[in-house]
């Protein structure tokens, strides 16, 4: 296959556009990565590439328990919130997609409302409630608001996926002798898996990235997550900005997200339902 | 294997719509029963109630003598073939066909054997390890059939299983399904909106309209003795011709001309409550080129102008239009709406006659047509009832 000049021009044009977009998107990321590898002397030299590469910043943040403890909190809290939100979200979305029940519109409306609520307006009441209930500065104290705010998102994405699965498949499973639970587990769940993965990743990223709740509802390293912990970083002397450490910490918490997305991209994109019914 | 009995079965959906009204049917063990009717008449709902996928609002459903109204689908031991096939996309053909057996904890070796046997019957052996997405429409259809037969269930329920296939494949599969059913001898309820499929497949056909059973009988019975306008117009292709007719003395005045009444028609119209304005129905094959008919034979002769002549080799279809209004009745309007033939309105009635291939009929020319009035039907326009049937419902009601 030879390419005509017109085709080549088109390819060239798209290449330029794509490169521009990618550069625009990746520039801040690269900037942070570059910063994290610079030593304190060259930190503010404005160069794109570190003149002297150093792992000092990384060693620094992992040297004390302040960051490692926050990392453990981040991973634990985000994972638990994700598992709970996706489990509940799956059940709710299945009901929303499949059943006609009284109050369905109300449920959808309410969850929309919650998703739209500016979290900042809830922070002070939450602070008081959690102090009162003894949840302040605990894992549960963060998991509960994360769940609340990510459930609407989970229900929305998942019910879209469930609606894509032909209802006939469930009927077929029932006639084939499956209990409702078996029909869900053996037929619906495998088909909804890409949707569940997508939702889980979105919810995880939401919890992982949150700063507002993390900074407001924690006071010690007991439950403080990385984004909040970074704000408490101090330089090695009081006259020094902790820029290098912050950059290194930022890179450390970005990596898992990137790995996640790359790992599951194919699953997210793959449409497993093709061929269920006449195409 | 089992007989299936419906007694006064009614389905009212939560929104208040009555989809099936007071249906009573006794389906014998091993019988091949067809449910036919236009789209939306409640065929699928009836089938889903038998399967247990829809609750029964009123009435009793028995499978093998046992009342199963409140039993879950899995406890009814019936297999269903869906219009969409509903194959599990994440499973191979083998897993699809063996799914029910796997749920029933049948031994793995036995499952393998049964699936392979069914695959051999359905010519799917080479495709057992493929996913449904990689199969053609016909192959998917056969997998859906296979999934039903490996289970050796009490009954097969099929909801328009062939309507997603192209015409040629449909005819092929139709024969195959009939053969398979005869061989297995499993009670089968088959839903279709295609009257040709209904006529060619079943032992017995049930015609439904608006959730109500119109008539039950063998294909020939429905064709020869339709109980009302709806059945008469629905069964048969090309459809029966309907003409408005006025009863006058000893004749029937129609747009075709005046037709003499024979004893049978006279008796039908002599009933006390018989209307004076009726609808006459003639099947296309009850016409013949008058030149080819023994003049001694009874019947009537009329002269028409041929619009279109279609030669099929074995027969010739002759179309012609008549002056005057077309037959009007609720049931006919419904049939026209279903077939997509919206009322042509201004034009008079259109007639199709099926003549012997020896006819000399030519387009645009006058043709003398013989009409076998002994075969004609006369319907009451208000109720749609066939007045020519001896077992007329109003007779039995009166007696
Ligand atoms: N879930 C439902 N809720 C309300 N009405 C329904 C539902 N399913 C079907 N119907 C109505 O019941 C009637 C019969 O439907 P159906 O049995 O699917 O017809 P068919 O299979 O003969 O085309 C239709 O008028 C349809 O609109
Ligand atoms: Mg249907």
UniProtKB/TrEMBL annotation, chain A:
<feature type="transmembrane region" description="Helical">
    <location>
        <begin position="139"/>
        <end position="162"/>
    </location>
</feature>
<dbReference type="GO" id="GO:0055085">
    <property type="term" value="P:transmembrane transport"/>
</dbReference>
<keyword id="KW-0813">Transport</keyword>
<feature type="transmembrane region" description="Helical">
    <location>
        <begin position="12"/>
        <end position="33"/>
    </location>
</feature>
<dbReference type="GO" id="GO:0005886">
    <property type="term" value="C:plasma membrane"/>
</dbReference>
<keyword id="KW-0812">Transmembrane</keyword>
<feature type="transmembrane region" description="Helical">
    <location>
        <begin position="183"/>
        <end position="205"/>
    </location>
</feature>
<dbReference type="InterPro" id="IPR000515">
    <property type="entry name" value="MetI-like"/>
</dbReference>
<feature type="transmembrane region" description="Helical">
    <location>
        <begin position="106"/>
        <end position="127"/>
    </location>
</feature>
<keyword id="KW-1133">Transmembrane helix</keyword>
<feature type="transmembrane region" description="Helical">
    <location>
        <begin position="75"/>
        <end position="94"/>
    </location>
</feature>
<feature type="domain" description="ABC transmembrane type-1">
    <location>
        <begin position="71"/>
        <end position="264"/>
    </location>
</feature>
<comment type="similarity">
    <text>Belongs to the binding-protein-dependent transport system permease family.</text>
</comment>
<dbReference type="InterPro" id="IPR035906">
    <property type="entry name" value="MetI-like_sf"/>
</dbReference>
<dbReference type="Pfam" id="PF00528">
    <property type="entry name" value="BPD_transp_1"/>
</dbReference>
<protein>
    <submittedName>
        <fullName>Carbohydrate ABC transporter membrane protein 2, CUT1 family</fullName>
    </submittedName>
</protein>
<feature type="transmembrane region" description="Helical">
    <location>
        <begin position="245"/>
        <end position="264"/>
    </location>
</feature>
<keyword id="KW-0472">Membrane</keyword>
<keyword id="KW-1003">Cell membrane</keyword>
<dbReference type="InterPro" id="IPR050901">
    <property type="entry name" value="BP-dep_ABC_trans_perm"/>
</dbReference>
TrEMBL record, chain B:
<keyword id="KW-0472">Membrane</keyword>
<dbReference type="GO" id="GO:0016887">
    <property type="term" value="F:ATP hydrolysis activity"/>
</dbReference>
<dbReference type="InterPro" id="IPR027417">
    <property type="entry name" value="P-loop_NTPase"/>
</dbReference>
<keyword id="KW-1003">Cell membrane</keyword>
<dbReference type="InterPro" id="IPR017871">
    <property type="entry name" value="ABC_transporter-like_CS"/>
</dbReference>
<keyword id="KW-0813">Transport</keyword>
<keyword id="KW-0547">Nucleotide-binding</keyword>
<dbReference type="Pfam" id="PF17912">
    <property type="entry name" value="OB_MalK"/>
</dbReference>
<dbReference type="GO" id="GO:0140359">
    <property type="term" value="F:ABC-type transporter activity"/>
</dbReference>
<dbReference type="Pfam" id="PF00005">
    <property type="entry name" value="ABC_tran"/>
</dbReference>
<dbReference type="InterPro" id="IPR040582">
    <property type="entry name" value="OB_MalK-like"/>
</dbReference>
<dbReference type="GO" id="GO:0005524">
    <property type="term" value="F:ATP binding"/>
</dbReference>
<keyword id="KW-1278">Translocase</keyword>
<dbReference type="InterPro" id="IPR015855">
    <property type="entry name" value="ABC_transpr_MalK-like"/>
</dbReference>
<dbReference type="GO" id="GO:0055052">
    <property type="term" value="C:ATP-binding cassette (ABC) transporter complex, substrate-binding subunit-containing"/>
</dbReference>
<keyword id="KW-0067">ATP-binding</keyword>
<dbReference type="InterPro" id="IPR003439">
    <property type="entry name" value="ABC_transporter-like_ATP-bd"/>
</dbReference>
<dbReference type="InterPro" id="IPR003593">
    <property type="entry name" value="AAA+_ATPase"/>
</dbReference>
<feature type="domain" description="ABC transporter">
    <location>
        <begin position="4"/>
        <end position="235"/>
    </location>
</feature>
<dbReference type="GO" id="GO:0008643">
    <property type="term" value="P:carbohydrate transport"/>
</dbReference>
<dbReference type="InterPro" id="IPR047641">
    <property type="entry name" value="ABC_transpr_MalK/UgpC-like"/>
</dbReference>
<protein>
    <submittedName>
        <fullName>Carbohydrate ABC transporter ATP-binding protein, CUT1 family</fullName>
    </submittedName>
</protein>
């Amino acid at each position: 296959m030879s390419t005509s000049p017109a085709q080549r021009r088109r390819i060239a044009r798209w290449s330029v556009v794509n490169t521009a977009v990618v550069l625009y998107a990746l520039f801040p990321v690269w900037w942070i990565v570059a910063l994290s590898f610079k030593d304190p002397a060259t930190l503010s030299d404005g160069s794109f590439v570190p003149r002297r590469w150093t792992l000092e910043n990384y060693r620094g943040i992992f040297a004390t328990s302040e960051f490692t403890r926050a990392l453990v909190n981040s991973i634990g809290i985000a994972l638990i919130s994700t598992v709970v939100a996706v489990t509940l979200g799956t059940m709710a979305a299945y009901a929303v997609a499949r059943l006609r029940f009284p109050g369905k519109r109300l449920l959808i409306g309410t969850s929309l409302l919650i998703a739209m609520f500016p979290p900042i307006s809830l922070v002070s009441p939450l602070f008081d409630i959690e102090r009162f209930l003894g949840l302040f500065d605990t894992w549960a104290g963060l998991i509960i608001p994360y769940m609340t705010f990510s459930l609407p998102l989970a229900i929305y994405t998942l019910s879209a996926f469930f609606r894509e699965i032909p209802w006939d498949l469930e009927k077929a499973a029932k006639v084939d002798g499956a209990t409702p639970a078996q029909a869900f587990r053996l037929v619906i769940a495998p088909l909804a898996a890409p949707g569940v993965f997508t939702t889980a990743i979105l919810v995880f990223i939401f919890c992982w990235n949150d700063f507002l709740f993390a900074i407001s509802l924690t006071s010690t390293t007991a439950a403080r997550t990385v984004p909040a912990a970074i704000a408490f970083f101090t330089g090695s002397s009081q006259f020094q900005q902790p820029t290098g450490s912050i950059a290194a910490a930022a890179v450390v918490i970005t990596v898992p997200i990137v790995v996640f997305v790359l790992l599951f991209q194919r699953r997210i994109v793959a449409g497993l339902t093709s061929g269920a019914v006449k195409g | 294997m089992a007989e299936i009995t419906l007694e006064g079965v009614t389905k009212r959906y939560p929104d208040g719509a009555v989809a099936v009204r007071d249906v009573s049917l006794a389906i014998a063990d091993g019988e091949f029963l067809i449910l036919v009717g236009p789209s939306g008449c409640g065929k699928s709902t009836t089938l889903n109630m038998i399967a247990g996928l829809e609750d029964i609002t009123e009435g009793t459903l028995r499978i093998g003598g046992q009342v199963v109204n409140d039993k879950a689908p899995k406890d009814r031991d019936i297999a269903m073939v869906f219009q969409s096939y509903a194959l599990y996309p994440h499973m191979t053909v083998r897993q699809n066909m063996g799914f029910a057996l796997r749920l029933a904890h049948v031994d793995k070796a036995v499952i393998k054997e049964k699936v392979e046997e069914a695959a051999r019957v359905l010519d799917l052996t080479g495709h057992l390890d493929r996913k449904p997405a990689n199969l053609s429409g016909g192959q998917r259809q056969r997998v859906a059939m296979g999934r039903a037969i490996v289970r050796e269930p009490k009954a097969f329920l099929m909801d328009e299983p062939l309507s997603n296939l192209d015409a040629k494949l449909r005819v092929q599969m139709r024969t195959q399904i009939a053969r398979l059913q005869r061989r297995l001898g499993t009670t089968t309820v088959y839903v279709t909106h295609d009257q040709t499929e209904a006529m060619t497949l079943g032992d017995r056909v049930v015609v439904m309209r608006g959730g109500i059973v119109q008539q039950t009988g063998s294909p020939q019975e429905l064709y020869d003795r339709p109980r009302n306008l709806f059945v008469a117009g629905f069964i048969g292709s090309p459809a029966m011709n309907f003409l408005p007719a006025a009863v006058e003395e000893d004749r029937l005045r129609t747009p075709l001309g005046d037709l003499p009444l024979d004893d049978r028609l006279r008796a039908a119209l002599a009933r006390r409550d018989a209307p004076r304005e009726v609808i006459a129905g003639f099947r296309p094959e009850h016409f013949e080129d008058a030149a080819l008919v023994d003049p001694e034979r009874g019947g009537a002769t009329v002269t028409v102008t041929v619009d279109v002549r279609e030669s099929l080799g074995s027969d010739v279809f002759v179309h012609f239009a008549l002056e005057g209004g077309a037959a009007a009745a609720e049931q006919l309007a419904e049939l026209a709406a279903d077939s997509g033939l919206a009322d042509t309105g201004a034009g008079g009635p259109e007639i199709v006659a099926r003549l012997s291939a020896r006819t000399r009929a030519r387009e645009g020319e006058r043709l003398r047509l013989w009409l076998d009035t002994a075969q004609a039907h006369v319907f009451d326009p208000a109720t749609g009832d066939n007045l020519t049937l001896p077992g007329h419902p109003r007779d039995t009601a009166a007696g």
